[in-house]
Amino acid sequence: MDLREPRQERSRATRRRLLDAAVECLASRGWAGTTVAVVAERAGVSRGAAQHHFRTREDLVTAAVEYGAEERMAHLRSRPRDALDARAVVDLLADLYTSPLFKAALHLWVAASADPALRDRVAPLEARVGREAHRLTLELLGADESRPGVREAVQATLDLMRGLGLADLLTDDSPRRRPLLAQWAAMLDAALRG
Amino acid sequence: MDLREPRQERSRATRRRLLDAAVECLASRGWAGTTVAVVAERAGVSRGAAQHHFRTREDLVTAAVEYGAEERMAHLRSRPRDALDARAVVDLLADLYTSPLFKAALHLWVAASADPALRDRVAPLEARVGREAHRLTLELLGADESRPGVREAVQATLDLMRGLGLADLLTDDSPRRRPLLAQWAAMLDAALRG
Protein backbone atom coordinates (compact mmCIF):
# COMPACT_ATOMS: atom_id res chain seq x y z
CA MET A 1 0.00 0.00 0.00
CA ASP A 2 1.43 3.34 -1.03
CA LEU A 3 0.73 6.05 1.54
CA ARG A 4 2.76 8.77 -0.18
CA GLU A 5 -0.02 9.96 -2.45
CA PRO A 6 -2.62 10.84 0.22
CA ARG A 7 0.12 12.39 2.37
CA GLN A 8 1.20 14.58 -0.56
CA GLU A 9 -2.42 15.53 -1.18
CA ARG A 10 -2.93 16.48 2.46
CA SER A 11 0.25 18.54 2.34
CA ARG A 12 -0.92 20.35 -0.80
CA ALA A 13 -4.32 21.04 0.78
CA THR A 14 -2.63 22.45 3.91
CA ARG A 15 -0.38 24.65 1.78
CA ARG A 16 -3.37 25.95 -0.13
CA ARG A 17 -5.31 26.73 3.05
CA LEU A 18 -2.32 28.73 4.30
CA LEU A 19 -2.05 30.66 1.01
CA ASP A 20 -5.77 31.52 0.97
CA ALA A 21 -5.68 32.59 4.64
CA ALA A 22 -2.58 34.73 4.01
CA VAL A 23 -4.38 36.66 1.24
CA GLU A 24 -7.43 37.26 3.47
CA CYS A 25 -5.26 38.25 6.41
CA LEU A 26 -3.09 40.64 4.41
CA ALA A 27 -6.14 42.26 2.77
CA SER A 28 -7.89 42.90 6.08
CA ARG A 29 -5.05 43.39 8.61
CA GLY A 30 -2.17 44.62 6.46
CA TRP A 31 1.49 43.65 6.49
CA ALA A 32 2.09 44.42 10.18
CA GLY A 33 -0.88 42.24 11.21
CA THR A 34 0.11 39.27 9.03
CA THR A 35 2.51 36.82 10.66
CA VAL A 36 2.93 33.08 10.02
CA ALA A 37 1.33 32.41 13.45
CA VAL A 38 -1.75 34.57 12.73
CA VAL A 39 -2.22 33.02 9.28
CA ALA A 40 -1.77 29.48 10.64
CA GLU A 41 -4.48 30.09 13.23
CA ARG A 42 -6.85 31.53 10.61
CA ALA A 43 -6.18 28.51 8.36
CA GLY A 44 -6.70 26.02 11.21
CA VAL A 45 -3.15 24.69 10.76
CA SER A 46 -0.64 24.12 13.57
CA ARG A 47 2.18 26.62 13.78
CA GLY A 48 4.70 23.81 13.26
CA ALA A 49 2.99 22.61 10.09
CA ALA A 50 2.81 26.20 8.81
CA GLN A 51 6.52 26.70 9.45
CA HIS A 52 7.24 23.45 7.61
CA HIS A 53 5.66 24.99 4.49
CA PHE A 54 6.79 28.60 4.95
CA ARG A 55 9.81 29.46 7.05
CA THR A 56 9.17 33.22 7.13
CA ARG A 57 6.35 35.71 6.72
CA GLU A 58 8.09 36.93 3.54
CA ASP A 59 8.03 33.39 2.05
CA LEU A 60 4.36 32.93 2.94
CA VAL A 61 3.07 36.29 1.77
CA THR A 62 4.94 36.46 -1.55
CA ALA A 63 3.85 32.86 -2.33
CA ALA A 64 0.24 33.74 -1.42
CA VAL A 65 0.04 36.80 -3.68
CA GLU A 66 1.69 34.92 -6.58
CA TYR A 67 -0.57 31.89 -6.15
CA GLY A 68 -3.71 34.06 -5.84
CA ALA A 69 -2.84 36.05 -8.96
CA GLU A 70 -2.07 32.92 -11.00
CA GLU A 71 -5.27 31.24 -9.89
CA ARG A 72 -7.46 34.26 -10.72
CA MET A 73 -5.81 34.75 -14.09
CA ALA A 74 -6.07 31.03 -14.97
CA HIS A 75 -9.78 31.26 -14.13
CA LEU A 76 -10.27 34.23 -16.48
CA ARG A 77 -8.22 32.46 -19.16
CA SER A 78 -10.44 29.36 -18.97
CA ARG A 79 -13.50 31.31 -20.16
CA PRO A 80 -14.96 30.51 -23.60
CA ARG A 81 -12.50 31.54 -26.28
CA ASP A 82 -14.62 34.18 -28.05
CA ALA A 83 -13.23 37.68 -27.61
CA LEU A 84 -15.32 39.79 -25.24
CA ASP A 85 -16.30 43.37 -25.93
CA ALA A 86 -14.35 46.13 -24.19
CA ARG A 87 -17.13 46.71 -21.64
CA ALA A 88 -17.16 43.07 -20.51
CA VAL A 89 -13.36 42.95 -20.21
CA VAL A 90 -13.23 46.21 -18.27
CA ASP A 91 -15.88 44.88 -15.83
CA LEU A 92 -13.99 41.60 -15.30
CA LEU A 93 -10.76 43.48 -14.62
CA ALA A 94 -12.46 45.93 -12.25
CA ASP A 95 -13.77 42.96 -10.22
CA LEU A 96 -10.23 41.55 -10.03
CA TYR A 97 -8.62 44.85 -9.00
CA THR A 98 -11.16 45.58 -6.26
CA SER A 99 -10.90 42.05 -4.79
CA PRO A 100 -9.16 41.09 -1.52
CA LEU A 101 -6.36 39.69 -3.70
CA PHE A 102 -5.54 43.17 -5.05
CA LYS A 103 -5.72 44.65 -1.54
CA ALA A 104 -3.32 41.94 -0.33
CA ALA A 105 -0.92 42.70 -3.21
CA LEU A 106 -1.16 46.43 -2.45
CA HIS A 107 -0.17 45.88 1.19
CA LEU A 108 2.76 43.75 0.01
CA TRP A 109 3.96 46.29 -2.63
CA VAL A 110 3.77 49.15 -0.12
CA ALA A 111 5.57 47.21 2.63
CA ALA A 112 8.26 46.27 0.07
CA SER A 113 8.77 49.92 -0.91
CA ALA A 114 10.11 50.67 2.60
CA ASP A 115 12.11 47.41 3.02
CA PRO A 116 15.01 46.83 0.59
CA ALA A 117 15.27 43.04 1.18
CA LEU A 118 11.54 42.56 0.59
CA ARG A 119 11.67 44.87 -2.42
CA ASP A 120 14.25 42.58 -4.07
CA ARG A 121 11.77 39.70 -3.84
CA VAL A 122 8.59 41.60 -4.67
CA ALA A 123 9.75 43.71 -7.64
CA PRO A 124 10.27 40.65 -9.93
CA LEU A 125 6.95 39.20 -8.73
CA GLU A 126 5.14 42.48 -9.51
CA ALA A 127 6.76 42.57 -12.98
CA ARG A 128 5.76 38.93 -13.66
CA VAL A 129 2.15 39.46 -12.55
CA GLY A 130 1.99 42.70 -14.59
CA ARG A 131 3.19 40.94 -17.76
CA GLU A 132 0.69 38.12 -17.24
CA ALA A 133 -2.18 40.57 -16.68
CA HIS A 134 -1.21 42.41 -19.87
CA ARG A 135 -1.15 39.19 -21.93
CA LEU A 136 -4.47 38.07 -20.45
CA THR A 137 -6.13 41.42 -21.22
CA LEU A 138 -4.94 41.26 -24.84
CA GLU A 139 -6.36 37.73 -25.12
CA LEU A 140 -9.71 38.63 -23.57
CA LEU A 141 -10.07 41.62 -25.90
CA GLY A 142 -8.76 39.71 -28.92
CA ALA A 143 -6.64 42.83 -29.47
CA ASP A 144 -3.79 43.13 -31.97
CA GLU A 145 -0.80 44.70 -30.22
CA SER A 146 1.03 45.33 -33.50
CA ARG A 147 -1.41 48.17 -34.27
CA PRO A 148 -0.22 51.61 -33.13
CA GLY A 149 -1.45 52.66 -29.71
CA VAL A 150 -3.01 49.30 -28.77
CA ARG A 151 -0.18 48.25 -26.46
CA GLU A 152 -0.33 51.57 -24.58
CA ALA A 153 -4.14 51.56 -24.39
CA VAL A 154 -4.06 48.08 -22.82
CA GLN A 155 -1.33 49.19 -20.37
CA ALA A 156 -3.37 52.28 -19.48
CA THR A 157 -6.39 50.03 -18.84
CA LEU A 158 -4.40 48.03 -16.29
CA ASP A 159 -2.94 51.15 -14.64
CA LEU A 160 -6.45 52.58 -14.43
CA MET A 161 -7.58 49.35 -12.72
CA ARG A 162 -4.76 49.69 -10.15
CA GLY A 163 -5.92 53.25 -9.49
CA LEU A 164 -9.53 52.09 -9.11
CA GLY A 165 -8.39 49.38 -6.71
CA LEU A 166 -6.64 52.02 -4.64
CA ALA A 167 -9.72 54.29 -4.72
CA ASP A 168 -11.78 51.38 -3.32
CA LEU A 169 -9.46 50.83 -0.36
CA LEU A 170 -11.01 53.08 2.31
CA THR A 171 -14.61 53.35 1.10
CA ASP A 172 -16.93 51.52 -1.30
CA ASP A 173 -16.15 53.34 -4.55
CA SER A 174 -18.55 51.30 -6.74
CA PRO A 175 -21.17 54.08 -7.36
CA ARG A 176 -18.47 56.37 -8.80
CA ARG A 177 -16.76 53.50 -10.61
CA ARG A 178 -19.71 52.30 -12.71
CA PRO A 179 -20.17 55.29 -15.08
CA LEU A 180 -16.39 55.69 -15.23
CA LEU A 181 -15.97 52.10 -16.47
CA ALA A 182 -18.64 52.65 -19.15
CA GLN A 183 -16.81 55.75 -20.39
CA TRP A 184 -13.44 53.98 -20.25
CA ALA A 185 -14.77 51.00 -22.22
CA ALA A 186 -15.97 53.38 -24.96
CA MET A 187 -12.56 55.11 -25.09
CA LEU A 188 -10.72 51.75 -25.13
CA ASP A 189 -12.97 50.40 -27.85
CA ALA A 190 -12.27 53.47 -30.03
CA ALA A 191 -8.50 53.11 -29.43
CA LEU A 192 -8.58 49.39 -30.37
CA ARG A 193 -10.43 50.16 -33.61
CA GLY A 194 -7.76 52.80 -34.40
CA MET B 1 7.96 96.32 21.18
CA ASP B 2 5.68 93.49 20.04
CA LEU B 3 7.44 90.13 20.13
CA ARG B 4 4.40 88.07 19.17
CA GLU B 5 4.84 88.42 15.41
CA PRO B 6 8.38 86.96 15.10
CA ARG B 7 7.48 84.22 17.60
CA GLN B 8 4.43 83.27 15.51
CA GLU B 9 6.57 83.27 12.39
CA ARG B 10 9.15 81.01 14.01
CA SER B 11 6.38 78.69 15.13
CA ARG B 12 4.95 78.56 11.60
CA ALA B 13 8.40 77.82 10.14
CA THR B 14 8.91 74.99 12.66
CA ARG B 15 5.50 73.55 11.83
CA ARG B 16 6.29 73.68 8.13
CA ARG B 17 9.66 71.96 8.60
CA LEU B 18 7.91 69.16 10.49
CA LEU B 19 5.29 68.75 7.77
CA ASP B 20 7.91 68.60 4.99
CA ALA B 21 10.02 66.12 6.97
CA ALA B 22 6.95 63.95 7.66
CA VAL B 23 6.20 63.66 3.92
CA GLU B 24 9.82 62.70 3.16
CA CYS B 25 9.94 60.22 6.02
CA LEU B 26 6.63 58.59 5.14
CA ALA B 27 7.59 58.31 1.45
CA SER B 28 10.93 56.64 2.20
CA ARG B 29 10.35 54.70 5.44
CA GLY B 30 6.63 54.02 5.39
CA TRP B 31 4.06 54.28 8.16
CA ALA B 32 5.85 51.97 10.60
CA GLY B 33 9.10 53.96 10.27
CA THR B 34 7.44 57.37 10.73
CA THR B 35 7.10 58.50 14.34
CA VAL B 36 6.98 62.05 15.75
CA ALA B 37 10.48 61.49 17.21
CA VAL B 38 11.98 60.34 13.87
CA VAL B 39 10.35 63.24 11.98
CA ALA B 40 11.47 65.78 14.62
CA GLU B 41 15.06 64.60 14.28
CA ARG B 42 14.91 64.77 10.49
CA ALA B 43 13.46 68.31 10.71
CA GLY B 44 16.08 69.46 13.25
CA VAL B 45 13.34 70.26 15.78
CA SER B 46 13.38 69.20 19.44
CA ARG B 47 11.00 66.40 20.34
CA GLY B 48 9.23 68.71 22.81
CA ALA B 49 8.66 71.39 20.16
CA ALA B 50 7.39 68.73 17.73
CA GLN B 51 4.95 67.39 20.32
CA HIS B 52 3.75 70.96 20.96
CA HIS B 53 2.67 71.13 17.31
CA PHE B 54 1.53 67.52 16.81
CA ARG B 55 0.50 65.40 19.75
CA THR B 56 0.41 62.09 17.84
CA ARG B 57 1.86 60.50 14.73
CA GLU B 58 -1.69 60.44 13.30
CA ASP B 59 -2.02 64.23 13.77
CA LEU B 60 1.37 64.88 12.18
CA VAL B 61 1.02 62.56 9.21
CA THR B 62 -2.53 63.49 8.20
CA ALA B 63 -1.63 67.21 8.48
CA ALA B 64 1.51 66.63 6.39
CA VAL B 65 -0.28 64.86 3.53
CA GLU B 66 -3.07 67.48 3.50
CA TYR B 67 -0.61 70.39 3.58
CA GLY B 68 1.58 68.82 0.87
CA ALA B 69 -1.40 68.19 -1.42
CA GLU B 70 -2.77 71.73 -0.94
CA GLU B 71 0.62 73.27 -1.58
CA ARG B 72 1.24 71.27 -4.77
CA MET B 73 -2.27 71.96 -6.09
CA ALA B 74 -2.01 75.69 -5.28
CA HIS B 75 1.26 75.74 -7.21
CA LEU B 76 -0.36 74.13 -10.28
CA ARG B 77 -3.33 76.49 -9.95
CA SER B 78 -1.03 79.55 -9.97
CA ARG B 79 0.17 78.79 -13.51
CA PRO B 80 -0.78 81.18 -16.35
CA ARG B 81 -4.54 81.01 -16.95
CA ASP B 82 -4.52 79.69 -20.52
CA ALA B 83 -5.86 76.15 -20.79
CA LEU B 84 -3.11 73.62 -21.48
CA ASP B 85 -3.40 70.85 -24.04
CA ALA B 86 -4.19 67.34 -22.80
CA ARG B 87 -0.58 66.21 -23.18
CA ALA B 88 0.78 69.02 -20.97
CA VAL B 89 -1.87 68.37 -18.28
CA VAL B 90 -1.24 64.63 -18.30
CA ASP B 91 2.52 65.25 -17.88
CA LEU B 92 1.98 67.66 -14.96
CA LEU B 93 -0.31 65.17 -13.24
CA ALA B 94 2.10 62.27 -13.82
CA ASP B 95 4.85 64.30 -12.12
CA LEU B 96 2.56 64.91 -9.14
CA TYR B 97 1.47 61.27 -8.81
CA THR B 98 5.02 59.89 -8.98
CA SER B 99 6.35 62.40 -6.40
CA PRO B 100 7.31 61.62 -2.78
CA LEU B 101 4.02 63.33 -1.80
CA PHE B 102 1.97 60.64 -3.58
CA LYS B 103 4.13 57.88 -2.06
CA ALA B 104 3.54 59.42 1.39
CA ALA B 105 -0.23 59.55 0.76
CA LEU B 106 -0.17 55.94 -0.45
CA HIS B 107 1.52 54.76 2.77
CA LEU B 108 -1.09 56.68 4.77
CA TRP B 109 -4.09 55.29 2.78
CA VAL B 110 -2.78 51.71 3.09
CA ALA B 111 -2.05 52.04 6.83
CA ALA B 112 -5.56 53.50 7.30
CA SER B 113 -7.17 50.56 5.48
CA ALA B 114 -6.03 48.21 8.28
CA ASP B 115 -6.73 50.63 11.18
CA PRO B 116 -10.37 51.70 11.73
CA ALA B 117 -9.56 54.79 13.85
CA LEU B 118 -7.08 56.08 11.29
CA ARG B 119 -9.48 55.24 8.47
CA ASP B 120 -12.12 57.55 10.02
CA ARG B 121 -9.64 60.44 9.75
CA VAL B 122 -8.10 59.58 6.39
CA ALA B 123 -11.22 58.73 4.34
CA PRO B 124 -12.58 62.35 4.47
CA LEU B 125 -9.09 63.69 3.71
CA GLU B 126 -8.79 61.36 0.69
CA ALA B 127 -12.23 62.47 -0.53
CA ARG B 128 -11.32 66.16 -0.13
CA VAL B 129 -7.99 65.82 -1.94
CA GLY B 130 -9.71 63.78 -4.68
CA ARG B 131 -12.37 66.49 -5.24
CA GLU B 132 -9.69 69.21 -5.34
CA ALA B 133 -7.59 67.23 -7.84
CA HIS B 134 -10.66 66.76 -10.03
CA ARG B 135 -11.49 70.49 -9.99
CA LEU B 136 -7.87 71.41 -10.70
CA THR B 137 -7.67 68.99 -13.66
CA LEU B 138 -10.86 70.46 -15.16
CA GLU B 139 -9.40 73.97 -14.79
CA LEU B 140 -6.05 73.05 -16.31
CA LEU B 141 -7.76 71.40 -19.29
CA GLY B 142 -10.37 74.16 -19.62
CA ALA B 143 -12.83 71.24 -19.88
CA ASP B 144 -16.62 71.55 -19.80
CA GLU B 145 -17.99 68.94 -17.41
CA SER B 146 -21.57 69.42 -18.61
CA ARG B 147 -20.67 67.59 -21.86
CA PRO B 148 -21.39 63.85 -21.78
CA GLY B 149 -18.44 61.67 -20.79
CA VAL B 150 -16.14 64.56 -19.80
CA ARG B 151 -16.60 64.08 -16.05
CA GLU B 152 -15.83 60.37 -16.30
CA ALA B 153 -12.85 60.91 -18.63
CA VAL B 154 -11.34 63.36 -16.11
CA GLN B 155 -12.00 60.92 -13.24
CA ALA B 156 -10.39 58.10 -15.27
CA THR B 157 -7.36 60.34 -15.86
CA LEU B 158 -6.87 60.74 -12.11
CA ASP B 159 -7.43 57.04 -11.40
CA LEU B 160 -4.90 56.24 -14.12
CA MET B 161 -2.44 58.61 -12.40
CA ARG B 162 -2.94 56.78 -9.09
CA GLY B 163 -2.22 53.50 -10.88
CA LEU B 164 0.90 54.98 -12.47
CA GLY B 165 2.04 56.23 -9.07
CA LEU B 166 1.63 52.71 -7.70
CA ALA B 167 3.53 51.21 -10.67
CA ASP B 168 6.44 53.58 -9.88
CA LEU B 169 6.70 52.48 -6.25
CA LEU B 170 9.20 49.60 -6.47
CA THR B 171 11.06 50.44 -9.68
CA ASP B 172 11.56 53.45 -11.95
CA ASP B 173 8.60 53.05 -14.30
CA SER B 174 9.31 56.17 -16.41
CA PRO B 175 10.44 54.35 -19.63
CA ARG B 176 7.13 52.46 -19.78
CA ARG B 177 5.13 55.52 -18.67
CA ARG B 178 6.21 57.93 -21.43
CA PRO B 179 4.54 56.31 -24.48
CA LEU B 180 1.55 55.39 -22.30
CA LEU B 181 1.02 59.07 -21.35
CA ALA B 182 1.21 60.11 -25.02
CA GLN B 183 -1.46 57.55 -25.94
CA TRP B 184 -3.62 58.53 -22.98
CA ALA B 185 -3.39 62.23 -23.85
CA ALA B 186 -4.64 61.43 -27.37
CA MET B 187 -7.57 59.40 -25.98
CA LEU B 188 -8.43 62.11 -23.44
CA ASP B 189 -8.27 64.81 -26.07
CA ALA B 190 -10.68 62.86 -28.30
CA ALA B 191 -13.07 62.34 -25.34
CA LEU B 192 -13.01 66.06 -24.43
CA ARG B 193 -13.83 67.02 -28.04
CA GLY B 194 -16.72 64.53 -27.97
UniProtKB/TrEMBL annotation, chains A, B:
<dbReference type="InterPro" id="IPR009057">
    <property type="entry name" value="Homeodomain-like_sf"/>
</dbReference>
<dbReference type="GO" id="GO:0000976">
    <property type="term" value="F:transcription cis-regulatory region binding"/>
</dbReference>
<dbReference type="InterPro" id="IPR050109">
    <property type="entry name" value="HTH-type_TetR-like_transc_reg"/>
</dbReference>
<dbReference type="Pfam" id="PF00440">
    <property type="entry name" value="TetR_N"/>
</dbReference>
<dbReference type="GO" id="GO:0003700">
    <property type="term" value="F:DNA-binding transcription factor activity"/>
</dbReference>
<feature type="domain" description="HTH tetR-type">
    <location>
        <begin position="12"/>
        <end position="72"/>
    </location>
</feature>
<feature type="DNA-binding region" description="H-T-H motif">
    <location>
        <begin position="35"/>
        <end position="54"/>
    </location>
</feature>
<dbReference type="InterPro" id="IPR001647">
    <property type="entry name" value="HTH_TetR"/>
</dbReference>
<keyword id="KW-0238">DNA-binding</keyword>
<protein>
    <submittedName>
        <fullName>TetR/AcrR family transcriptional regulator</fullName>
    </submittedName>
</protein>
